[in-house]
Structures are given as structure tokens and as C-alpha cells.
Design a protein that fits this description.
alpha+beta; 264 residues; 2 domains; five-stranded antiparallel beta sheet; transmembrane helix; single chain
């Protein structure tokens, strides 16, 4: 391989490396700005580390060009005919890669969210189906320390059984001084049934957005059985209504993850 061929090869490697770096930066911006979760942890980290390989290729091609210092000579003696039509197609192909990357990333994020939704629904169904006695205890709400403690114990056992089990809160509708409120009970309660000081409803107020309040109103007042699932920037939420013998609760699942669920 002569000097001209070496310089040409190094130029090709340099151009390819620059394009790969541009695509990588474009991909990174989309992931960070839109909070996309696409690939599993090992694939995501490998993808991020690949930029080091790209920079190494760029550095290597630059060093070769400097060492031989033959770029001008190679261009001067280059008798190849430039096909402008072919170049236009190449440029168009390179540009079209950008929307293709966006489609892949947003599609992967959608598949991750859909997979997470199925897992959360399965978790909700397991709470209700695996142990009917515990399900009856959850839906048989009355504000008392016994109910709060039993609910915490049930949820703690469920979350401790499966390491992938999302955080879960039991939401009920109640009132404080005549005003309707929503209360939330999770797997943590530090009280003791022997305590003389009884729990206060104010401690268990469940904060909601307007959209969530509208949804809960439909469940508790209009007997809606609709699920509510949402995800944003790696946070996944599921509201799962459950009713029995005229009593209603909503199981609220939430989970946060840094990585997607696609890939190996």
C-alpha cells in the first residue's frame, strides 16, 4: 500500500468516525432531552463507551495524515472523476439516517413502556389473585391502626418476595372535617397497635394532580374500572382499581428505572 492509498484510507476512516460521532451526539441528545429508556443496562453502557472507540479512530486517522503529510499531493494527483449525482445520493442517505435513529429510539422507548405496563398489571393481579384473604383485608377499609398495620405488612411481604416488584400504595377515599380527601397507605408504618396515640388522617393524605383527582373521582364516584398508566423520564405509574362487595380501593404502582428493557 503506497502513501496515497494510506492517506485516502485514513481520510475515509476520519470521515466515517466524524459521521458516527455526529450520530452518537444526536442519539445522546434525544435520549437525554426526552428521557428515553430503550436498552438494558449493559447495552446502554456499551453504547456510551463506544464514543471512546470513535474518538480513537478519529485520532488515529489524524495522526496518519500528519505523519505522511500527503493529503495535498494525493488530491493534486487524483484523476478520479467526481460524480455529483452519486454524491447527492450519499448525502441524502446520511441525512435520512437521523430520522431513522429517532424512530428506533422512540420505538424502543415505547416498547419499554409497554413492557413495563404489562409487568405492573401482572403485579396488581398477583396481589389480588395470590391471596384472597389479604385482598379482602385491603379492600375492607376503615381508618384504624389495625387496617394501616395489616396493609403495611401485606405490601411489605409482596414487595420482599419479588425484587422487581414496584412500589405500591393503597389509595382510598375518605373525608376530613367534611371535605373529601384521598388517603394512601404503603408498606411502611412505624406505629404499634399498643400505642395509646391513634394515627391521624392528615399523615396519610395522598397528594394528587388535577388529572389524577379526575381519574380517582371517576373510580370512586362513577364506578369506573379503567386503568390509568403513565410514564415520563423513566418513571412508570399505574392506577389499578379493585372493588369487592361494594367497597373500592385503587392500587397505585410506581417504579423508576435508569435503563430500558430491550436487548440482552
Amino acid at each position: 500500500m503506497n502513501a496515497k492509498q494510506i492517506v485516502r484510507l485514513s481520510n475515509i476512516i476520519g470521515i466515517i468516525s466524524i459521521m458516527l460521532l455526529v450520530y452518537w451526539v444526536f442519539t445522546f441528545i434525544l435520549i437525554q432531552v426526552f428521557g428515553l429508556k430503550v436498552f438494558r443496562e449493559n447495552m446502554t453502557e456499551s453504547f456510551y463507551l463506544s464514543v471512546l472507540g470513535i474518538l480513537a479512530l478519529m485520532a488515529g486517522s489524524l495522526i496518519i495524515n500528519i505523519m505522511f503529510n500527503l493529503t495535498r499531493i494525493a488530491e493534486k494527483h487524483n484523476l478520479d472523476v467526481v460524480n455529483s449525482k452519486s454524491n447527492r445520493w450519499r448525502i441524502m442517505t446520511l441525512i435520512l439516517i437521523f430520522p431513522l435513529i429517532a424512530i428506533i429510539l422512540f420505538g424502543g422507548d415505547y416498547l419499554t413502556a409497554a413492557k413495563k405496563e404489562k409487568l405492573m398489571i401482572k403485579s396488581a393481579e398477583s396481589i389480588i389473585a395470590v391471596n384472597k384473604a389479604n385482598s379482602d383485608k385491603l379492600v375492607n377499609y376503615n381508618f384504624s391502626e389495625k387496617y394501616i398495620k395489616e396493609t403495611a405488612d401485606i405490601l411489605e411481604i409482596l414487595s420482599g418476595t419479588d425484587k422487581n416488584f414496584p412500589s405500591v400504595t393503597v389509595i382510598v377515599k375518605d373525608s376530613i372535617k367534611g371535605s373529601p380527601v384521598y388517603l394512601g397507605f404503603d408498606d411502611y408504618y412505624e406505629g404499634d397497635l399498643k400505642d395509646t396515640i391513634q394515627p391521624q388522617k392528615n399523615r396519610f393524605l395522598y397528594k394528587t394532580t388535577k388529572e389524577e383527582r379526575d381519574y380517582l373521582e371517576n373510580v370512586f364516584e362513577k364506578n369506573s374500572n379503567e386503568l390509568r398508566y403513565s410514564n415520563y423520564n423513566g418513571r412508570y405509574e399505574l392506577f389499578y382499581p379493585y372493588r369487592k362487595n361494594g367497597k373500592k380501593i385503587v392500587l397505585y404502582f410506581s417504579d423508576t428505572q435508569r435503563y430500558g428493557k430491550l436487548g440482552s
